[in-house]
């Protein structure tokens, strides 16, 4: 029988942070990939090929209706465009393209 126990310290903070972020996950914190490297990604490539070329995504989320995982790459902080890679359950790229960065819709902090 499963018995729920209260979360403490770091576990509670982690859970609160994940809940605040919704369904997405922030994954990358290193250097951003170049636009040329992102354009080299092609349908049919493996998840590992993508990681080898451009590293882990800035954030990712799942699309249940299509059973896809979307990897998002922020490659230029000067504009509001992100690069998206759609991955099938077998780990291959279905398609790639650009989209509007939702962070640009955030209220200004000035």
What topology, given as strand order, has the largest sheet? 1-2-3-4-5
Q: Strand fraction band?
A: 25-35%
Named CATH architecture: 2-Layer Sandwich
Provide the number of structural domains. 1
CATH topology: Beta-lactamase Inhibitory Protein, Chain:B, domain 1
Q: Biggest β-sheet: count, sense, barrel?
A: 5 strands, antiparallel
How many helices? 3
CATH uppermost class: Alpha Beta
Write down the overall mean pLDDT: 77
Round the Cα radius of gyration to an integer and report it: 16 Å
Structural class, please?
A: alpha+beta
How far apart, in Å, are the first and last alpha carbons? 51 Å
Order of helices and strands: HEHHEEEE
| Helix fraction bin | 10-25%
In the predicted model, the low-confidence regions spanning at least 5 consecutive residues are: 1-28
Signal peptide: 1-28
Keywords: Signal
Organism: Piscinibacter koreensis
Protein name: Outer membrane protein assembly factor BamE
Structure, explained:
- By secondary structure, the protein is of the alpha+beta class.
- It contains three helices and five strands; from the N terminus they run αβααββββ.
- The protein has helices at 9-20, 35-39, 47-54; strands at 25-26, 59-63, 68-73, 81-87, 93-100.
- The protein has a five-stranded antiparallel β-sheet.
- Strand 3 (68-73) and strand 4 (81-87) form a beta hairpin.
- The longest helix is centred in the N-terminal third of the chain and has 12 residues, at 9-20.
């Amino acid at each position: 029988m499963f018995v729920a126990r209260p979360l403490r310290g770091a576990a509670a903070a982690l859970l609160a942070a994940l809940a605040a972020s919704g369904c997405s996950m922030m994954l990358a914190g290193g250097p951003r990939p170049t636009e040329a490297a992102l354009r080299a990604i092609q349908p049919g490539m493996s998840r590992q090929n993508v990681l080898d070329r451009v590293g882990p995504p800035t954030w990712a989320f799942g699309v249940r209706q299509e059973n896809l995982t979307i990897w998002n790459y922020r490659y230029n902080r000067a504009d509001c465009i992100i690069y998206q890679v759609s991955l099938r359950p077998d780990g291959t790229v279905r398609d790639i393209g650009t989209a509007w960065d939702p962070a640009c819709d955030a209220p200004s902090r000035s």
